[in-house]
Each structure stands twice: as structure tokens, then as C-alpha cells.
Amino acid sequence: MNILIVGGAGYIGSHMVKMLHLSGHDVLTLDNLSNGYRDAVLYGEFVEGDITNRALLDHLFSKYQFDGVMHFASFIQVGESMEQPAMYYKNNVSNTINLLSAMAKAKIRSFIFSSTAAIFGEPDYVPIDEEHPKKPINPYGHSKLMVEQILHDFDNAYNLKSVCLRYFNAAGADADGELGERHIPETHLIPLVLQAAAGRRDNISIFGTDYDTPDGTCIRDYIHIEDLCSAHLLSLEYLVSGGDSRAYNMGNGQGYSIRDVIDTVKKVTGSGFEVIESPRRDGDPASLVADSTQLQADLGWEPKYPDLETIIQHAWNWEQKHNWG
């Protein structure tokens, strides 16, 4: 297949570029490098540009005749979305409409969308399946749910088929050590704790120790980046072979607490560091765990690295090798 990766210089996109290339597909990355890194795109062609540029999109779609598009270029920070909702609705919704409109004009029918567990809001039950009520509590979650609705309408109007993959917590790094997670600023738990283990942070904070969980800290579902990418590849193959639009929840189905993560980091790294217990943050549910049985049943997806220790070991290998300070 010939695939366009929008946002392919970022954390998830760069891993996806590598997996597609090693699976024998042709890949072109389009990224404006606002949050990504040119040196993370190890394979295929690269175009520095933005999906706001309709002329560029029309040119690329005419020149390359893509079989499908994967979209990883959304803004993803919940707190930032609360402070700057206009920025999130413009990038995550308006800019995506521009991309989809160009696809519809070029009659490109297969689209893989990075959605999020944030569309569900405070969970009514866990694990969370696809039928769970969708009640986002921040602009980030609202923006992703809006795109899911837009994709439904584009399917009806233009026969543009999509798979929405609702991530819980992407984590880890390329098992080969070539790629990993580097955000500035970093907001994800595992790399933050690894930075503390490496001495790049003075301490790590636990926000809330009185939740209704076994150890009082929040529980989250962490999925290895390579397992996440394999679900994208299976989804694209499904669409290109004639599949209908779908939306899937994606995680390991196993929850780990904040203390579990900290203890596992200490075990993997052999490092000690200060842990500070801080008050709860607004909007942090006690537990978020995915029910991915539908994805497994429909597409045959199965996590290769479900173990938290393996996820952290791969991330630690990356941290030690590159020390992105």
C-alpha cells in the first residue's frame, strides 16, 4: 500500500512509519514539526507542511495516489485544552475537516483516526467498552468526539470509510531502541518517572492517594506503542480490503496504579527517587481501563507486549540511550 502519515514525526506517528515500512508499504510523512522531530522519520519520503494548506494536500493526493491516510496530528494535552479551547477546536476539528475534504475530492476512501478514551469522560463502569456513554469533560475529548461524528457523516455523504482507535495510554518505546517518546514539555507518567530515575527530575508527584482503588492512586491502562501501531496496520488493511467504518477501544485490558508504575520503574532501573504525595487534580477519574475484546474479535489484534515491566524496560532503554534533556 501507499500510505500518507499525517503527524508522522511525532511519538506515535514515527513508530507507525517504521512499522509500515518494515511491513513492505510505501510511506510519505506530512508534518509541520510543531511537536515532532525530523530525525524521528527514519523511512520513506518526508514533506514539511500543514494540513491547513489545501493546495498542498490536493497536490500530494494527485501525485501519490494514496491507498489510505493515518492522522496523528492532533493536540493532546487535556489541561492545555481547558486553557486554550479555540486552539484545540481549530487544529483537531477544523484542520481535520480540511484534510477529509481533500481526501473526499481525491476519492481516497480509507482513513485511520487517532481518537481517545477522553471521549467517555468520567466512566460509569470499567472496563470501558464501545457502548459506554460518551460524555467528554474537556475540550480535548469534545474535539475528538466531534471528529468521530464528522467521520460518520463523511461516510454517509462521500463513502469515506474510517476506523477510529480510542487510545487509553500509549507508552513504551521501539523494541529496537531506534525510536521513543520525547515531548517538550513531557506530561505522560512513565517518561516522567523515568526522568526521575535518571536524575533529570528532582522527584515525582502522585496526585491523589485517596481514590477508591486498592492502593488509593489512579489506575490506568498502558498499551505498548508497537501494539498500538499494529492495531493501526490491521485497521488499514481491513478498510483497504473493503471493510466498513468502525470505532474501537484500545488498551491491554489491565489496569496499573500510579504506585505500580513507580514501583516497576524502581525495579527496572534500580534507581531510587523522591516521591511526593500531592492533592488530587480536577478531572482525574479513579480508573480508566479499556475493553478491547471487539478489536480483538473483529481484526484479530493481540498485544505483543502487555506486561508493564516490558513497556517500562523498552522506555528505559530509550531514556538511557538518548537522555533527551
3D architecture notes:
The protein is of the alpha/beta class. It folds into two domains: 2-171 and 223-250, NAD(P)-binding Rossmann-like Domain (Rossmann fold), CATH 3.40.50.720; 189-221 and 253-289 and 305-322, UDP-galactose 4-epimerase, domain 1. 40% of the residues lie in helices and 19% in strands. The protein contains ten helices and 13 strands. It has helices spanning 11-22, 54-64, 78-83, 85-106, 139-158, 189-197, 225-240, 258-269, 293-299, 308-322, and strands spanning 2-6, 26-31, 45-48, 68-71, 110-116, 161-167, 169-171, 203-207, 219-224, 246-250, 255-257, 274-278, 287-288. The strands form three sheets. A seven-stranded parallel beta sheet has the order 3-2-1-4-5-6-10, sandwiched between helices. Strands 7, 9, 11 and 13 form a four-stranded mixed beta sheet that branches. Strand 5, helix 5 (139-158) and strand 6 form a beta-alpha-beta unit. Helix 2 runs parallel beside helix 4, helix 6 packs parallel to helix 8 and helix 6 (189-197) packs across helix 10. The mean pLDDT is 95.
